[in-house]
Amino acid sequence: MYKIIEVKQSVFEDNNKDANKLREECKDKGVFLLNIMSSPGAGKTTTLSRTLERLKDRMRIGIMEADIDSDVDAKTISEYGVRTIQLHTGGMCHLDADMTRQGLREMGMEDLDLAVLENVGNLVCPAEFDTGSTKNVAILSVPEGDDKPLKYPLMFQVCDVVLINKMDVLSYFDFDVEKCKENILYRNPNAKIFEVCAKTGEGIDDWCNWLENEVKAWKE
């Protein structure tokens, strides 16, 4: 014997409501919340470092580094002289809106223009939970392959921007940039795409210009 249960309410509904509330709180305080996601090793921390080099003197920035354990990334980012905290997820492979709110509360939103959440390295779970961010960014590195938007559709559907990183090693991998862009736009026709190399700085200025303009528009 068994029961048939009809699920009529999304298990994510409470989180989605909380995320919308957090977005409103950030808007009221004039804080732009950026959620950066990628697989492990795609270059989130290095890309964030290059971004800070260009923007830390032009706006007030706070960084939340999320990881299952360790504080390696927080130590790296704190060297840039911006407000930084490390979030430990206790084994969870993502952050949700309430966890993000806790991080913002501990970091403090006072006198911030931009708060950045470097999410847990994972192409699945982080995409499923709305953190309350103003914009979502996915970083896809050349060594991962140009087919990732097809294999991990939700990640690329929820992201406003995709950075194709590690362009300096393009010649060593079977990676078709135009095919990758086609795959991204197939999942999300409105996605903004930047070709970058966090190591060399290629394309980082264009990305930073876009981000700075978005932050200014959010605060108006």
Brief sketch in words of this structure:
The chain is of the alpha/beta class and 220 residues long. Helices cover 40% and strands 19% of the residues.
Assess the beta-strand content as a share of residues.
15-25%
Helix content: 40-55%
How would you name the CATH homologous superfamily? P-loop containing nucleotide triphosphate hydrolases
CATH class: Alpha Beta
| Rounded radius of gyration (Å) | 17 Å
Rounded mean pLDDT score: 92
**What structural category arises from helix and sheet content?**
alpha/beta
Termini separation: 60 Å
Shape: globular
Number of domains: 1
GO molecular function: GTP binding; GTPase activity; nickel cation binding; zinc ion binding
Pfam families: cobW
Family: Belongs to the SIMIBI class G3E GTPase family. HypB/HupM subfamily.
InterPro entries: CobW/HypB/UreG_nucleotide-bd, Hyd_mat_HypB, P-loop_NTPase
